[in-house]
Amino acid sequence: MIKAAFFDIDGTLLSFKTHRVSDGTVRAFDRLHNAGVHTFISSGRPLVLIPPMPVTFEAHITMNGGLVFTPEKVLLSNPIAEEDKHRWLDLAAERNLCTMIFSADGMMLTQPNEVGLALRDQLEFEMPPVVDICAMRDIEAFQIIALMPPQMDSEVATLLPHCRLPRWHPAFTDIVANGNSKARGMEAICHHFGIAQEETIAFGDGANDIEMLQWAGVGIAMGNAAAEVKAEADMVTASVDEEGIEKAINKII
Prior knowledge:
The chain is α/β, with parallel strands linked by helices. The protein is about 30% helix and about 20% strand. It has eight helices and 13 strands. The strands form two sheets. An eight-stranded mixed beta sheet has the order 5-4-3-2-1-11-12-13. The longest helix has 14 residues, at about 80-95. The protein is globular. It starts with a strand and ends with a helix.
């Protein structure tokens, strides 16, 4: 019996074309709630970048599991090690790399460029405050968005031994503390709500969703997901623009 459903945002709940939750997804959430299923966000975004949506969630996994909370309680908090943050900022300053840092309650940007502006437009969020890179050194960072090509991933992974780089976009990678993942956030939420792993389903489309889909009792890849994501899923549904969530829920519930 399914008792919990976890949802990625970009490319899963929100279409990259419309930037909205579809009518079919709203119907699917109604079906889940009528069946007594808890619904949860599981995103790489921080809370400040999660837009209002016509569906409800009882807890949030944010910043790829760096900060997990219900409205009443923080369930998991694991920021980036200070030494790794400073190593990244040194490299970003040296190579003039656009960087965003997310704290528990805000975000900031340094060294903006055309790629960063294009990312803002694609994901349809407001550009965070632009600061001098030195201002980032005093911030407790839960996630860094590093605008750099995939060819740099191995170099940066070596430079930041206490971090992992869950990339879900060719223009940038997320940088989070080791151990942080959407799967770890799911485990914390399930423990809090008394839900067994096999009683969960999860929907995602990006590489940072793979661990979530693997951990879930039923991992469901969207039709617009990359091939490597689909390969790790228990089920592949239609794309976000073809009511993939509703079609899967109608089969399962």
